[in-house]
Specification:
Number of helices: 8
Number of domains: 2
CATH architecture of the largest domain: Alpha Horseshoe
Radius of gyration: 33 Å
Shape: elongated
Order of helices and strands: HHHHHHHHEEEEEEEEEEE
Helix content: 40-55%
C-alpha cells in the first residue's frame, strides 16, 4: 500500500542478506545501458529515410571498410525523393579515373585510375557508376575478387532491366576468370611450392681458385609467382666485405639483382638473371639470360654462378665469377 514500508527481509538465521556493493553498481550500469539503447532504438525508428541516409553516410566515413553498410546506402538511395545529388567532386574523380584508365600502359596507371574511382565512391557512396568503373579497372589489374565485390554493389543500385542483365552477365564472366586464375595458382603452387616463401641471399666475387675475395651481408626477399615463373628480386643496401687487401675492408654496397625460375618444355628447372644478354659480345645489351646454378637436394638452397667479363671495350674474361647463394628461410 502507498506509504507503507516493506518489512526488512530476514533469513532463516534471523539477519538481512547483504548484497555486495559491486553487484548493486553493476545492476545500475546495466540499467543505464539498456535505457540508452532503448532511446537509440526509438530515435532510429522515428528517423525519416533521409535522416537514416545521412546517419549511414556519417557512419561510413568512420568505417569505410563496412561493405554491409555501403550496400544499405546504395539500397536506400533510390527511395529518397528527390534523389541525392552527385557532388561535382565525385564526378570529377570519375572522369579523371576514366582518363587514367584509357591512357594506361602500366600497372601504376591502373592503380591511379582505381584510386580516382575509390575517391568517387567515397564522395558519393550511393553512386552506381563509381562501383562499375572500379570493377572494370580491378579486372584489368587481375583482381577478380575485388571486381566482383564492386560489381555486386553496383547491382544494388536502381538499374534498368537492360543494365541489370549486362551486369549479371559481366558477373558470370568475372566468376569464370576467377576460377581459371585459382586453378592456375593451384597448379603453380604445386609446381613452384619449393621456391615459394622467403629467401636469404649473399653475393660473392670468387677467383679462379674458388676463394671468395668479396662477400656481402645477407639480404632478404620473398618469392613472387608471376604467370609460369617465380621471381626473386633483391634491391637494397648491404655491406660488402673485401678481403683482397690482406685484411678485411667493409664498405656499403648496393645490390640490385633480379632472378626468375621456370621450367622448360622438358620439365627441367632453369634460372635466369637480368643482365648481360651475351657476355662475350660488345657492346653490352641487357635482357634475361640463363645462369648456371645448382639446386640443393632438399631444394632449400640455390647456388647460381656467372663467369664475369671486363667492361667494354675488351669484354674479356676477368678471371672472376659472381656467385649468389640463396637459402630458403620459410
Amino acid at each position: 500500500m502507498p506509504g507503507c514500508s516493506k518489512p526488512p527481509e530476514v533469513s532463516a538465521f534471523g539477519y538481512k542478506p547483504i548484497v555486495p556493493k559491486a553487484k548493486i553498481d553493476m545492476r545500475r550500469i546495466l540499467q543505464l545501458m539498456l535505457a540508452q539503447l532503448f532511446a537509440v532504438c526509438i530515435c532510429v525508428a522515428a528517423a525519416t529515410p533521409r535522416e537514416q541516409f545521412a546517419q549511414m553516410l556519417d557512419l561510413l566515413q568512420k568505417t569505410p571498410q563496412d561493405d554491409t553498410l555501403r550496400e544499405g546506402i546504395v539500397r536506400l538511395a533510390p527511395q529518397l525523393k528527390p534523389a541525392p545529388s552527385i557532388p561535382e567532386e565525385a564526378r570529377r574523380a570519375l572522369v579523371r579515373g576514366n582518363t587514367a584508365q584509357a591512357e594506361a600502359t602500366t600497372t601504376d596507371d591502373y592503380a591511379r585510375a582505381a584510386k580516382h574511382y575509390e575517391d568517387a565512391a567515397a564522395l558519393a557512396p550511393w553512386w552506381g557508376p563509381a562501383y562499375l568503373s572500379l570493377a572494370k579497372v580491378r579486372e584489368l589489374q587481375l583482381d577478380y575478387l575485388s571486381a566482383q565485390r564492386n560489381l555486386k554493389i553496383y547491382m544494388l543500385a536502381a538499374l534498368s532491366p537492360e543494365e541489370a542483365r549486362k551486369a549479371q552477365d559481366y558477373l558470370y564472366a568475372l566468376e569464370d576468370k576467377q576460377e581459371r586464375a585459382d586453378k592456375s595458382k593451384n597448379e603453380n603452387d604445386a609446381k613452384f611450392g619449393w621456391a615459394s616463401g622467403q629467401w636469404r641471399m649473399t653475393k660473392s666475387l670468387v677467383d679462379r681458385s674458388g676463394i671468395a675475395v668479396t662477400k656481402t651481408d645477407p639480404l632478404i626477399a620473398r618469392s613472387n609467382i608471376e604467370g609460369d615463373r617465380v621471381m626473386l628480386k633483391f634491391a637494397a643496401e648491404s655491406m660488402e666485405h673485401d678481403f683482397r687487401t690482406g685484411g678485411e675492408r667493409v664498405s656499403p654496397a648496393r645490390l640490385d639483382d633480379s632472378f626468375r625460375v621456370s621450367y622448360d618444355r622438358s620439365g627441367k628447372v632453369i634460372m635466369e638473371l637480368f643482365g648481360r644478354r651475351d657476355q662475350y659480345t660488345c657492346p653490352v645489351a641487357y635482357d634475361w639470360n640463363e645462369v648456371a646454378f645448382e639446386l640443393g637436394a632438399d631444394r632449400r638452397t640455390i647456388t647460381a654462378t656467372r663467369e664475369d667479363v671486363y667492361a667494354p671495350p675488351s669484354c674479356k674474361l676477368s678471371g672472376y665469377s659472381t656467385v649468389w647463394v640463396f637459402e630458403r628461410e620459410r
